Amino acid sequence: MNPWIQTHKRDLLIAAISIAATLAIALIVFAVTNSSRKTTSVSVAPAINAVVTDRASTTPSAPVVAPVTPTTTVPTPAAAKPAPVVKPTTTAPTAVKPVAPVTTTSSGTIKSMTMKASVSDYAPNDRETVTITATVKDNYGRAVTRASVLAMVGFRAGTQAYKLTHRGNGVYTVSFVLGTRFYPGYRVTTNITATYLGKTVTASTNFIPAHD
Length: 212
Prior knowledge:
Elements lengths: L2 H5 L1 H49 L55 E7 L9 E10 L9 E8 L2 E6 L1 E4 L2 E7 L10 E9 L2 E9 L5
Antiparallel strand pairs: 1-2, 2-6, 3-4, 3-7, 5-6, 7-8
């Protein structure tokens, strides 16, 4: 045997063991590496499928509309308001002014009288009926119903007296027919006098008979 080998036998053995250990470690590392690659390649597919599944699951679907049940709101009746209390109103009595102590036209006393006279036709024809009217009132404008009214009709040949009759509401009248005493074209003047309870009032009217 080579003396060098004999001398370095131990060193060579140690080197061989070191080389063998290094190779063993390299093989282990290689095996582990290959195993990791296979595991990765195998686990990629499920991961991809999981991603696809997640994307599909996140795809928006048509919204589901729940049926709406109509609700009817019943109005709550308002509380009835109490009827307003009407307070009775008290109207103060109207003071009545005292009336002057003047009697009515049918009795008692009056201060004065007024009278208006008129004729039914101011140009009557021969044989036409003429009516003389006198309206008598007291100083308050009330009708005098019980006066004595007398008309003095003056024609060409003389004067004729006529008593007037009360027709209502202080109106007195008398009617007569024109005759030969009334000359055509001659003015006939009628003076009327009304007397009541010592008071006297006069008025006059006239007419002219028409020519034939």
